[in-house]
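Readers of this paper often ask what the protein records in our data store actually look like. An entry from our holdings is shown next, in its original layout:
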Amino acid sequence: MVGGGGAGLVMVLVVIEFLEQGLSTMSKAAMSRGMSNFVFVAYSNALAIFFLFSASILFYRKRRLPRLTISIALRIFLLGLIATCLQLLMYVGIGYSSPTLASVMTDLAPAFTFILALVSRMEKIDLRVQSSMAKFMGTIVCITGALTVTLYKGLPLTNVSPSMHQELLLQPHSSWIIGGFLLACAAFLLSVLLVVQTWIVRDYPAELMLTLLACVIVTIQSTIVALIVEKDVNAWMLKPDVELLTIVYAAFFVVAIRSVTYTWVCKTKGPLYISMFKPLGMIIASAMGVSLLGDTLYLGSVIGGVIIAIGFYAVIWGKAQEEKAVQESGSFSFESSSPKVPLLSKHVEA
């Protein structure tokens, strides 16, 4: 694996992928029963504040917090804005499509992260070198796979009842395309979020407090959006069924625990390390969607998923070859290979 790491950390990130895909499946089920995705984002983040605030009081009771400067505060506000847009796009996209498509489009995160590293000059490309060629071609292949999933639905591969088959024929193909586009935008914002998060946490190494402050900002922004979009007061009334369960699940396991974990991993390993685990979501979501929600598995999703997986592993292989060359030479030929160097700046110290 790129960047190395213990088996414990790998297991934690794998478990988080299961939790994320579980949320995608639950949110799809809740939205099919009428839950507003805008209200869901506002409620889940508001409840997460309670968990994060309680944990912060205990954790920082005998620890000194780093100084919060105006520059750090502005960056945290930017982080919250990105997180708000990411969550809204993700759940609206799932509403238009399915959790399976969401996991496939999230596989673009490693490619987007790599591109952002190139733009910020933290990665270098030399097409005469095999590892650089692998990373470059892998990025192109990932994008091709995502377009395949979005634009080509194909034949259903799982058994479909006659009534369901008729429903699928009547379902507008434009909804699938809109959902894929929104989810692709969410995947890009995820990469931006990880990069910005790394940029902040290495200047402000207080993962729990950083996550709490960002969550407060997301709650305020998402509530404003929900109040504007949702005119029906009944949309804010929670039902004691899958809607309430989904909100509690999202607040504790995903918004709180996942966000703190990602912040810590960004500080210690960098954003690309986290994005490496996203392709696992495709397998998990497909199994959950077909078995729990009765989703239909389409040929386009399978073909596009395989293409994305090939591109993803090409990027990771190229990255691994670079780190191997660095270890053998004893020097850093690629500055981004060091986990202590963030993607946004060469001069930010941990």
The chain is about 75% helix and 0% strand. Residues 56 and 208 are 6 Å apart (CA to CA). Confidence is low (pLDDT under 50) at residues 1-5, 161-171, 331-350.
